[in-house]
C-alpha cells in the first residue's frame, strides 16, 4: 500500500513539472523526499497500531471489571436445601428465590403442614416444615393412595391324581385386570365405602408470592388454580378424569376422590395391591378363612371361595368307591353284564376358578392317557351344564383338550364332562370321565 502511494505521488509530481514552466527538482531530490515521507508514514502507522492495542486492552479490562461487578453468586441467593419429611419425599431441585418445592407422603401417611413452600427474598422458605403422620386405621392390607402400575395375577394350573391308565392337567391363563361387577360368593357381603369429602375441603386459598413486581400464585398438589384473581384452589377430581372401565383409569375396582388426592378400594375377598390401585385375591382356603366341612373341598375363587362336595355317583348297574379325595373308581362288573361295562371305569373331579368375561378361545383342561391298551382313543363332551361354552379337541395322540369357546359373564358355575374312550377294533375297552366344574367370578380381575 505504501509503495502504491509513493508511485502515485511520483507520477503526480512529474505531471506537475511537465505541465508548468517551473523548474522541477531532480530525481535524486525527489526520491530523498519520498523516503522521508515514507519514514514519517511508518512512524505514524506504528503509533496508530500501538494506540489501537492499548485501547483494546483498556476495553477488555473494563469488560472484565463490569462482569465481576454484576456476577451473581448462586449460593448467596438460594434458600438452604429443604429436607424431605420422614416417610415422605420432596419434589423440586432448584432452591433459588421465587422457586417452589413440593412435599408428598408415602401410602398410609397424611401430610401435616404445607404441601408447597416458596424460597422468599429473605432466603428463607415460606411456611413451616411439613411432616407425615400415619393415617388412622391404616394397615398392611388397607386402602392407600393409588399409583399407576398394574399388577397381574399368576397363572392358575393344577392337576388331579393319576391312575395306572389316565392322567389329567389344567391350564388357565391369567386374565387382564379390568373393571368389576357385583360380588356373589359363598362368603360375600356388601362393602361399605367412604364418600368424598365435603365441598368446603375441596376449595382452599392459593399461595401467592410477590417477586420483582409480579405476583405468582400456586396450589397444593391435587388442586388447580381458579377464581378471577387466581386466588382460589379447587380440588381436582382424579376419579372423574380417569373413569372406571376406560384406558388410563386409576383404580381397578372403585375410586373415591378426596381433597387433593384419591383412594382405591377393592371388594370383599380382595386386598389392595402394593401399587395402590390393583386388587389381589385373598386365598381363603389357604388362610383357613372358610367354613367348609371336613367332607367338603374348599375351592378358592376370585373374590371368595366355594365349598364343593365330591361324591361318587349311584348307578343302576354299577357301583363306585372313592379311591382318593377327587376320584371314584368302578367296582368290578359281573361277567356278561354289558350295562355295567358300559359305565365309566373311573370318574375324576376337577375345579377351576376363572374371572368374568375371560377372553376365548382358551385352553382350560387337558386329559391324557398314561398308557394305551387299545388301538384307538376318542375324546368328547359327555354332558354338563353350559355345554355351549365348551368344546373338546384332540391335541395329541394320547391327549384331549377342553376349550372355553365363548366368554362367560359371572357370577356363574358351569360343568363340563370330558369323556375319553379306549377301543380295540371298535370294541369298547373302557370309558374314563372327568367332571370339570368352572367357578366364574363376578369380577373381571
Automatic annotation (TrEMBL):
Its main location: membrane. InterPro entries: cEGF, ECM_structural_protein, EGF, EGF-like_Ca-bd_dom, EGF_Ca-bd_CS, Fibulin_C, Sushi_SCR_CCP_dom. Residues 77-134 form the Sushi domain. GO terms for molecular function: calcium ion binding. GO terms for cellular component: membrane. SMART domains: CCP, EGF, EGF_CA. Residues 1-21 form the signal peptide. It is found in: Membrane. Disulfide bonds join 105-132. Transmembrane segments: none annotated. Keywords: Disulfide bond, EGF-like domain, Glycoprotein, Membrane, Repeat, Signal, Sushi. CDD domains: CCP (cd00033), EGF_CA (cd00054). The keyword Disulfide bond applies. It comes from the Eukaryota. This is Fibulin-7-like.
Amino acid at each position: 500500500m505504501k509503495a502504491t502511494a509513493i508511485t502515485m505521488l511520483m507520477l503526480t509530481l512529474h505531471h506537475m513539472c511537465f505541465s508548468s514552466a517551473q523548474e522541477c527538482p531532480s530525481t535524486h531530490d525527489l526520491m530523498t523526499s519520498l523516503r522521508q515521507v515514507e519514514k514519517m508514514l511508518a512512524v505514524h502507522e506504528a503509533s496508530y497500531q500501538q494506540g489501537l492495542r492499548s485501547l483494546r486492552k483498556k476495553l477488555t479490562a473494563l469488560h472484565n471489571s463490569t462482569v465481576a461487578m454484576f456476577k451473581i453468586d448462586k449460593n448467596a441467593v438460594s434458600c438452604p436445601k429443604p429436607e424431605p419429611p420422614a416417610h415422605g419425599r420432596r419434589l423440586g431441585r432448584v432452591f433459588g428465590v421465587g422457586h417452589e418445592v413440593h412435599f408428598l407422603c408415602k401410602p398410609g401417611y397424611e401430610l401435616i403442614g404445607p404441601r408447597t413452600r416458596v424460597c422468599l427474598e429473605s432466603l428463607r422458605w415460606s411456611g413451616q416444615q411439613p411432616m407425615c403422620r400415619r393415617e388412622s386405621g391404616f394397615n398392611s392390607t388397607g386402602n392407600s393412595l393409588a399409583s399407576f402400575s398394574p399388577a397381574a395375577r399368576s397363572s392358575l394350573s393344577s392337576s388331579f391324581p393319576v391312575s395306572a391308565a389316565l392322567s389329567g392337567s389344567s391350564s388357565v391363563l391369567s386374565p387382564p385386570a379390568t373393571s368389576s361387577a357385583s360380588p356373589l360368593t359363598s362368603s360375600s357381603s356388601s362393602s361399605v365405602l367412604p364418600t368424598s369429602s365435603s365441598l368446603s375441603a375441596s376449595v382452599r386459598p392459593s399461595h401467592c408470592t410477590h417477586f420483582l413486581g409480579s405476583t405468582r400464585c400456586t396450589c397444593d398438589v391435587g388442586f388447580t388454580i381458579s377464581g378471577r384473581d387466581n386466588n382460589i384452589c379447587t380440588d381436582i377430581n382424579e376419579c372423574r378424569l380417569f373413569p372406571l372401565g376406560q384406558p388410563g383409569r386409576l383404580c381397578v375396582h372403585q375410586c373415591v376422590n378426596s381433597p387433593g388426592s384419591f383412594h382405591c378400594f377393592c371388594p370383599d375377598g380382595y386386598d389392595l395391591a402394593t401399587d395402590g390401585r390393583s386388587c389381589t385375591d385373598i386365598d381363603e382356603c389357604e388362610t383357613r378363612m372358610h367354613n367348609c366341612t371336613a367332607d367338603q373341598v374348599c375351592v378358592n375363587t376370585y373374590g371368595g371361595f366355594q365349598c364343593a362336595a365330591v361324591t361318587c355317583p349311584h348307578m343302576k348297574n354299577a357301583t363306585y368307591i372313592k379311591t382318593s379325595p377327587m376320584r371314584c373308581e368302578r367296582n368290578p362288573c359281573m361277567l356278561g353284564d354289558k350295562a355295567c361295562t358300559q359305565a365309566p371305569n373311573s370318574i375324576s373331579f376337577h375345579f377351576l376358578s376363572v374371572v368374568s368375561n375371560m377372553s376365548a378361545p382358551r385352553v382350560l383342561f387337558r386329559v391324557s392317557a398314561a398308557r394305551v391298551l387299545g388301538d384307538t382313543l376318542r375324546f368328547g363332551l359327555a354332558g354338563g351344564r353350559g355345554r355351549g361354552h365348551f368344546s373338546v379337541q384332540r391335541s395329541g395322540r394320547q391327549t384331549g383338550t377342553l376349550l372355553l369357546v365363548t366368554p362367560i359373564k359371572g357370577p356363574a358355575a358351569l360343568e363340563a364332562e370330558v369323556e375319553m374312550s379306549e377301543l380295540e377294533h371298535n370294541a369298547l375297552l373302557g370309558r374314563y370321565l372327568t367332571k370339570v366344574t368352572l367357578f366364574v367370578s363376578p369380577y373381571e380381575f
